[in-house]
TrEMBL record:
A matching Pfam family: PP2C
Any one cellular-component term (Gene Ontology): mitochondrion
Family annotation (SMART domains): PP2Cc (SM00332)
Residue span(s) of domain PPM-type phosphatase: 124-523
Superkingdom of the organism of origin: Eukaryota
Protein name per Swiss-Prot or TrEMBL: Protein phosphatase 2C-like protein C10F6.17c
Length: 526
């Protein structure tokens, strides 16, 4: 059917500047602002389209200007890569980070908080998280909640997730509150065994709730294969997470650390017998893996006859999992029939080979307890009752003294540094801060040197590059003590190594570093 002038005007009116603008997402991951658009007139578009439909010859009309707000309705023109007659210049989209870039990535999620350390003193907590997985599976929390007698306690948590992020996020949002619910039922003078028992019950109740909610949703009468509601309910049971929780009572200056998994707590304790300020590393947790003799004995007693198939003593893995205690991880806890149903109906993973008598994992924590030496700032006044400031409780001014500090970290940090060297690293940070020299790295340490095997990083056949953080490579360049620890764990003065570790991107970053979370808690003046 031929187009007369009146029909053509009517069609063109539909794409005039007075018509509503159509905005569509371009089929490119490149931002639209960097694309150039081919300016083709509406007449060319319409006539070309009609010609194709009717079989008539297409007439190419000259491009004309149009309003910029209509640009998004046209197919974009792709830029040429050729430069002045040369060949195309193709570059990697992955940046090689220089030191400034690597510092920015390292410090992106750092923070500091103050808290009541007891004895009238104020404490400080430094935190940093460096992701590797996308999305990140490590979570952390810092906050106050009520303890026995409804007195305020301070809590710190590190939750190292695996096989997903849902479990660690659930723990971040819920674990401290549920621990507090159990603790506040106790009197203020509750004995330590009762307090530990309450914390253990809280941990177990959270894991029981995770698995009960998942099974109830999956086996409910209205559950349909692929149900979004069921997928949501089972997610915290399908993934898994370790939990490291520190609970501090400022009234008694008592610290309790509850550990489920292989995140680790280490106390830097002031050596009172040393003439110079010196700290000793005091472990407040023990990695719960098959390499742990206590864990091996517990599991073999609970599952007799499965020693050979259940635990690999060399790797420490239990039926393939790196830890012997964890939240979630349904494949190490559920019956095979339930695991298979979750796999077939809701796309989760199947049963573990050699699984015969589940559950193999527990979320029950091991708890360590210690009294803290609270640091005293020069010129401060000590008070009784954990820092209650009133004239009746004031005591004579005490002598200034250094306080203990606590390192809480996921295994991504401890993979590269020992307890003793981590404490030494913080001790150097404290000394530099006292001297107002946090950025005083000697120029000689800023120079890259040819890597050698004896410089504590090496390449063995069939393995990824490995390295260890030791004091000869420590630098002090960060205001945040947790960031300082991670910097040195990831290379310190070995700048090429540090920049390479920070440049690694998902998914290969998982071969370089794990998600890494560190908290450094100072009890008193720093």
């Amino acid at each position: 059917m031929p187009l007369n002038n009146q029909s053509l005007k009517k069609i063109l009116g539909a794409v005039s500047s007075r018509s509503p603008t159509l905005v569509r997402r371009l089929y490119s991951s490149r931002p639209p602002s960097t694309l150039r658009y081919a300016r083709v007139s509406p007449v060319a578009t319409i006539v070309g389209g009609v010609a194709a439909v009717t079989g008539a010859a297409a007439y190419l009309l000259q491009p004309t200007a149009f309003k910029e707000e209509n640009a998004a309705i046209f197919v974009p023109q792709i830029s040429s890569l050729k430069k002045d007659g040369g060949s195309s210049n193709i570059q990697s989209p992955v940046r090689a980070l220089n030191l400034a870039d690597a510092n920015e990535v390292l410090r992106r999620e750092q923070s500091s908080k103050l808290f009541d350390a007891g004895n009238g003193q104020r404490g400080r907590c430094d935190v940093v998280r460096v992701p590797s997985n996308s999305p990140v599976e490590d979570e952390f929390v810092v906050g106050t909640q009520v303890g026995p007698g409804r007195n305020q306690w301070t809590f710190w948590g590190v939750f190292d997730g695996h096989a997903g992020w849902a479990t660690s996020v659930l723990l971040r949002e819920n674990l401290i509150s549920i621990v507090s619910d159990h603790l506040e039922e106790l009197p203020a003078n509750a004995p330590s065994p009762e307090i530990s028992s309450a914390i253990i019950k809280a941990f177990i109740s959270v894991d029981d709730s995770i698995n009960a909610a998942a099974l109830a949703a999956m086996n409910g009468p209205d559950a349909q294969p692929g149900s979004a509601e069921v997928l949501s309910a089972i997610a915290p049971a399908i993934a898994g997470s370790c939990a490291l929780l520190a609970a501090y009572d400022p009234r008694s200056t008592t610290l309790r650390v509850a550990c489920t998994g292989d995140s680790r707590a280490v106390l830097g304790r002031v050596d009172a017998d040393s003439a110079k300020p010196k700290y000793t590393a005091v472990p407040l947790s023990k990695d719960q893996t098959g390499k742990n003799d206590d864990e091996y004995a517990r599991l073999t007693a609970a599952h007799p006859g499965e020693e050979e198939t259940m635990i690999n003593r060399e790797s420490g893995r239990i039926l393939g999992l790196a830890v012997t205690r964890a939240f979630g991880d349904h494949r190490w806890k559920w019956r095979e029939s339930d695991i298979t149903e979750a796999q077939q109906r809701y796309w989760s993973s199947g049963p573990r080979p050699n699984s015969r008598t589940p559950p193999y994992l527990t979320a029950e924590p091991v708890i360590e307890e210690t009294r803290i030496n609270v640091g005293v700032k020069p010129g401060s006044t000590s008070t009784g009752g954990g820092g209650a400031n009133n004239d009746q409780q004031q005591q004579p001014q005490p002598q200034p003294q250094r306080g203990d500090f606590l390192i809480l970290a996921s295994d991504g940090f401890w993979d590269h540094i020992s307890n003793e060297d981590a404490v030494e690293c913080v001790a150097r940070w404290i000394a530099a801060k006292k001297a107002n020299n946090l950025r005083g790295t000697p120029p000689s340490l800023l120079k890259d040197k040819p890597p050698k095997r004896n410089e504590h990083w090496w390449l063995d056949e069939g393995r990824y590059v490995e390295w260890r953080a030791t004091p000869e490579y420590f630098v002090v360049e960060d205001d945040n003590a947790a960031t300082h620890l991670v910097r040195n764990a990831f290379g310190g003065s070995r700048r090429n190594l540090f920049c390479g570790v920070m440049s690694a991107y998902p998914p290969i970053s998982r071969n370089v570093r794990d998600d890494t979370t560190v908290q450094v808690v100072f009890f008193g003046d720093v």
